[in-house]
Amino acid sequence: MTHDNRLHRDWYAILDASPSDCVQELKQKYQKLALLYHPDKQSPDTAAGEVEQCVQRFIEVDQAWKILGNEETKRAYDLQRRARELKQNWPVDAHVCLDDMTWDDGEQVYTYGCRCGGEYVVGKEEAEEEEDLVICCDTCSLSIEIKRPA
Ligand SMILES: [Zn+2]
């Protein structure tokens, strides 16, 4: 992956929020997480590695709120996000019927070979419950859309 992750962060996911949340909800979620990951709130027994992770999360949460808490930057980000979603939805390599996939009884998953030699893997429940499910190859950037038996 050569994408710049900083530009492609999902700020909503970082705040444990969804794009449909209002600013008030976003703020509450931000405050909850900021408190949870605040370096000063960690217990003295916490391992150094964990503290470091908390600091990283704290910085991310703070960045997310800086973007989503401001009407202008939020609107710009939402537009960017939509455009990216549309683009991501585009390269579906094939439409595959669940019946065409191979059922792996041991792993309880459906698998399907990608033309790159990689594999598409999807859990039973996900495959059977979600509509218009798009899954990604475990090796390349292709994806397939799974059609459920009618
Ligand atoms: Zn592939």
TrEMBL record:
Record flagged with keyword Ribosomal protein:
no
Residues in J domain copies: 10-81
Which positions, given as ranges, span the membrane? none
**UniProt key word Iron:** yes
Question: Matching Pfam families, A to Z?
Answer: DnaJ, Zn_ribbon_CSL
Database matches in Gene3D superfamilies: DnaJ domain (1.10.287.110), DPH Zinc finger (3.10.660.10)
Q: Which UniProt keywords apply?
A: Iron, Metal-binding, Zinc
Q: Could you say which protein family the record assigns here?
A: Belongs to the DPH4 family.
This protein's name: DnaJ homolog subfamily C member 24
The organism encoding this protein is Megalops atlanticus
